[in-house]
Automatic annotation (TrEMBL), chain A:
Keywords: Cell membrane, Membrane, Transmembrane, Transmembrane helix, Transport. InterPro entries: ABC_BtuC-like, ABC_transptr_permease_BtuC. It comes from Kocuria carniphila. This is Iron chelate uptake ABC transporter family permease subunit. It is found in: Cell membrane. The chain crosses the membrane at residues 29-51, 63-83, 95-115, 127-146, 152-171, 192-219, 248-281, 288-308, 314-335. Pfam families: FecCD. Belongs to the binding-protein-dependent transport system permease family. FecCD subfamily. It is a multi-pass membrane protein.
From TrEMBL, chain B:
It is a peripheral membrane protein. It comes from the Bacteria. It is found in: Cell membrane. InterPro entries: AAA+_ATPase, ABC_transporter-like_ATP-bd, ABC_transporter-like_CS, P-loop_NTPase, Siderophore_ABC-ATPase. GO terms for molecular function: ATP binding. It comes from Kocuria carniphila. This is ABC transporter ATP-binding protein.
Length: 340, 252, 371
């Protein structure tokens, strides 16, 4: 068969081909290097800017914050990109689908069931592991049900996720009201995103958990690109879709759980980072998208915190600013998608 | 050979595919026809493990579709659904390259590159190979997906309404291409198709479904009979023989 | 050629028709599938059913009046009357007049008005999944309230409410304008856009509330709570009663507007004017409720949808039902919030959010099951 391709003037086609080839081959690596450098600059500035005689006191605290933010950027970047890959769209993120609300609900229910006394008896870390375990269990059940059932419209999934989030938050605050005021205070602290003063032990155990959860991702890294072609094509190409998606969702729920435990909920951060990464690197290869989105996350968090903290002297407003920008971006994506 | 026995799918109370049993011999073009909602696409999807069956079994060359590891099956059988919207921006070559995934597991070897080159060449896509798929026209995009299936190099190629959204010219080209694939590459092409005249002119066998059940199967001459077509579609269709092809006149 | 017989013998067990009970539980009204009103539906459409429902709400109102920390119940009143305890009786009446009656009245007014506002909103957006708190109206109202609190702290309550209402009109207009930009009116996209618009406005509000140390105050606007209602601090709510009445009078026009601009024009209804009226009613109701009580989420979404399932979408018929159900729904939630952790109170907004979100979710999943 000879379609209209034959009529196309060949030189033109070759010209176009060359141009594209140049742009595509250079950019992902360049982008990664540039953003990586920017991330390093941000970290450096954050750590050492305005350091005075109190360095011995200030520096460890700053390092703690930077480390927390890097960890969060890693979790959010990776989990959002992979979540969007397995759900084949660029609007859904674990946070928008209610993952972090679910984690907060689990925290609240646990406090409600075992009380502050049980909390101290159990110890912080076993409690944390218990919370994470429950999170994985429920997230895997719920979201597998939502995503592996074929043919559910994106908007319905999105709306269901958002309402689930609202419901979880509603139940959490209802249960909190049922708690004693003292127990309420314990929880209240964990309900707002804040990058200040994360307990060192919690940080250590988080690193261990994240590292462990990353292993299955490394094992199946080659499948991510195929998954982004959509369920049917992926199955036709021999991917065990249900199992792969379930694994990714479990890892996502661990990442989100750790993140929420560390700094609290930040709904739209992943959406911003992932979509910026897609826009910047112009390739579908996860080998590039994943590192770029993590680096972007570091730039956004550390740089944003740097500006807000040192220039405007707002301490915990970063999550509000992220919420605002992310909401606008989300609206834009929604409307653009529908107009298309 | 693909062997279906007692294949059944239910959605709630409604049975979409109802105990379908058939044997599809290797080689040639096999068309599945039937009215809307007859269960054609669902049956095809079950054969390709995209939809889980509620009852019955499918064997592809003695491999049970239910138990065979998905990546092994992907070397035997490929399927192309009608809506192929990509959320990712891919070049033609990238997408066709994914056809090699079952063989290469993501790391392209020299022989994979050869397969990709051949598939692109077979569909006259070589000069488009660095264009993005979403920049192509509907007909071209369809060819890119076919090229991907060819690169996958399976014995059986399943296509769900491949003529959807194609104009007459591109439909004829597509059907000719599918025939050529069976002759030159020795593939077995099984497709769901709405236009009975395309099915009649280009298939070796036709399976007809109605209300979830397989009602008859045979060569185009056997199926293209007014009384049988009335059974399948509940309407009167006159059949004329033009240049040895049986053509149904259903426009008025 | 081989003609395969259709395989009718469905031997896979359990499919043989089992003896059915005479009346399937839960299937009270199967007539709607046949298209003609069955006895249950006819009953629903009669005024008698509405009166019964209104009486039920009245009973709830009486219960609500006698729930509270101070011991004022019909029994104590009787004892005081019988025992000639005039001082005690006076004290009881004082409590009723200052605290209990205002509270019950404000619950009824707010519930009724927010539910009707949701219904009007749905007609205007031509979408079943919107209501003032999912399209940015409530968020805009609290932004306005915050602005006036920061800029003119000494403004009287009525002035604050006015500013909040202006902002609420602006937010609603913004939402409807964004809707115009969606050529393909996807039923689920509309509430998504609304919720996100609300989130963005809420983020702005939160930011400034944080800057001016008003987060605590903002919280009282965002979570509806009747515990602060006493005589002298709820009377603005009577305004929403008047607005609801206007909504009822203009019901036919809203029904027509709900069929779209083209149909409205054909039927001789001034579409723009009726949209402006609807926006004003919704915005004013939201502003008043946010100022006096705080936001009551999902109420305007859940109640009209339930009523729509029962008796359809003709607003002339459905407004009274929506009003009655709205009042009843909030009364129940308020009573629950007061007794569940007695003697502490749980804000009604929290209770409604849980129940409302659960019902909304059920509605969405039902939609999924059907499609």
């Amino acid at each position: 068969m000879t379609p209209k391709s034959a009529a196309l003037p060949v030189p033109n086609a070759i010209q176009q081909k060359r141009k594209r080839f140049v742009v595509r081959s250079v950019s992902p690596a360049m982008v990664t290097a540039l953003i990586g450098a920017l991330a390093l600059v941000c970290i450096g500035l954050y750590l050492f800017l305005g350091l005075d005689a109190n360095a011995a006191y200030v520096l460890p605290r700053r390092a703690n914050r930077v480390f927390t933010m890097v960890l969060v950027a890693f979790c959010v970047g990776v989990s959002t990109v992979l979540f969007q890959t397995v759900t084949s769209n660029r609007i859904l993120t674990p946070s928008i689908m209610g993952f972090d609300s679910l984690f907060m609900l689990i925290q609240t229910v646990l406090i409600f069931v075992i009380g502050t006394v049980g909390r101290t008896q159990l110890g912080t870390y076993p409690l944390f592991m218990l919370e994470l375990g429950l999170m994985v269990l429920f997230a895997a059940i719920m979201y597998r049900w939502l995503f592996t059932g074929s043919g559910l419209s994106l908007h319905l999934v999105l709306l269901i996720g958002i309402v689930f989030g609202t419901l979880f938050r509603g139940i959490s605050s209802l249960l909190q009201r049922l708690l004693d005021p003292s127990e309420f205070m314990v929880l209240q602290d964990s309900m707002f995103a804040s990058f200040t003063g994360v307990d060192l032990g919690l940080l250590r155990i988080s690193v261990a958990i994240i590292a462990a959860a990353t292993i299955p991702l490394i094992v199946m890294r080659r499948r991510f690109d195929v998954l982004s072609l959509g369920r049917d094509t992926a199955i036709s190409l021999g991917i065990n879709h249900t199992r792969t998606v379930t694994t990714v969702l479990i890892v996502c729920s661990i990442f989100v759980g750790v993140c929420t435990a560390l700094v609290g909920p930040i709904t739209f951060f992943g959406l911003i980072v992932a979509n910026l990464a897609y826009a910047l690197c112009r390739t579908f290869r996860h080998a590039w998208i994943l590192p770029i989105s993590v680096l972007l996350g570091i730039v956004a968090l550390v740089g944003g915190q740097l500006i807000l903290e040192r220039v405007f002297a707002f301490d915990t407003a970063l999550s509000i600013v992220i919420e605002f920008c992310g909401g606008l971006l989300f609206l834009f994506l929604l409307l653009r998608g529908s107009i298309k | 050979m693909i062997e279906l026995s007692g294949l059944t799918k239910k959605y709630g109370e409604t049975t979409v595919v109802d105990h379908v049993s058939a044997q599809i011999e290797p080689g040639g073009v096999v068309s599945i026809i039937g009215a809307n909602g007859a269960g054609k696409s669902t049956a095809l999807s079950m054969v390709a493990r995209l939809v889980t069956m509620d009852d019955g079994s499918v064997f592809v060359d003695d491999h049970d579709v239910l138990n065979t590891p998905s990546d092994q099956l992907a070397k035997k059988l490929s399927i192309l659904r009608q809506e192929n919207t990509l959320t990712v921006r891919l070049t033609v070559r990238d997408l066709v390259g994914f056809g090699r995934f079952p063989h290469s597991k993501g790391r392209l070897r020299p022989e994979d590159t050869e397969h990709i080159d051949r598939a692109l060449d077979y569909l006259n896509l070589t000069e488009f190979e660095d264009r993005y798929v979403d920049e192509l026209s509907g007909g071209q995009r369809q060819r890119v997906f076919i090229a991907m299936v060819i690169a996958q190099d399976t014995d059986y190629v399943l296509l769900d309404e491949p003529l959807n959204n194609l104009d007459m010219k591109h439909s004829v080209e597509m059907m000719k291409l599918l025939r050529r694939m069976t002759h030159e590459l020795g593939k077995t092409v099984i497709l769901v198709i709405h236009d009975i005249n395309f099915a009649s002119c280009y298939s070796d066998r036709i399976l007809a479904m109605k209300e979830g059940a397989l009602v008859c199967q045979g060569t185009p001459e056997e199926i293209m009979q007014p009384d049988i077509l009335r059974d399948i579609y509940d309407m009167d269709i006159r059949v004329e023989v033009i240049n040895g092809h049986h053509v149904g006149m259903y426009y008025m | 050629m081989s003609t395969l017989a259709h395989a009718p013998e469905n031997t896979s067990g359990g499919s043989a028709p089992e003896p059915q009970p005479a009346v399937k539980p839960g299937a009270t009204d199967r007539s709607d599938q046949a298209g003609r009103p069955g006895p249950f539906r006819r009953l629903l459409r009669s005024n008698g059913a509405l009166v019964i429902a209104a009486l039920a709400v009245l009973v709830l109102a009486v219960i609500s009046t006698f729930v509270g920390v101070a011991d004022v119940t019909p029994a104590t009143l009787m004892r005081q009357v019988a025992g000639g305890d005039t001082a005690g009786l006076q004290e009881s009446f004082h409590l009723l007049a200052v605290s209990r009656f205002p509270r019950t009245i404000s619950v009824i007014l707010a519930g009724m008005a927010m539910a009707v506002a949701g219904l009007i909103m749905q007609q205007m957006a031509r979408n079943k999944f919107v209501e003032p708190s999912t399209v940015g109206t409530v968020e805009s109202a609290s932004l306005g309230l915050l602005a006036v609190t920061v800029l003119v702290p000494s403004a009287p309550l009525l002035g604050k409410m006015g500013v909040a209402a202006v902002f609420a009109v602006g937010g609603t207009a913004l939402f409807l304008a964004v809707l115009q930009k969606i050529p393909l009116r996807n039923a689920l996209l509309v509430p998504l856009v609304g919720i996100m618009l609300g989130n963005v406005i809420a983020a702005i509000t939160t930011f400034f509330a944080y800057r001016f140390n008003l987060l605590q105050t903002l919280n009282t606007w965002m979570i509806g709570d009747f515990s602060g209602v006493i005589k002298g601090r709820y009377e603005l709510l009577w305004l929403v009663a008047a607005l609801t009445l206007i909504g009822y009078i203009a019901a036919d026009r809203f029904t027509v507007a709900g069929m779209g601009q083209d149909v409205s024009t054909t039927l001789g209804v001034n579409y723009k004017r009726i949209m402006a009226l609807g926006m004003t009613i919704v915005a004013l109701i939201s502003a008043v409720v946010v100022v006096t009580i705080g936001s009551i989420p999902f109420l305007g979404l859940v109640v009209p949808n339930i009523v729509s399932l029962m008796i359809g979408d003709n607003m002339r018929r459905s407004v009274p039902w929506v009003g009655v159900f709205g009042a009843g729904f909030v009364l129940v939630c308020d009573i629950v919030g007061r007794v569940i952790r007695y003697p502490f109170e749980i804000p009604v907004g929290t209770v409604v959010a849980v129940v409302g979100a659960a019902i909304f979710l059920a509605m969405l999943l039902r939609k999924r099951a059907r499609s």
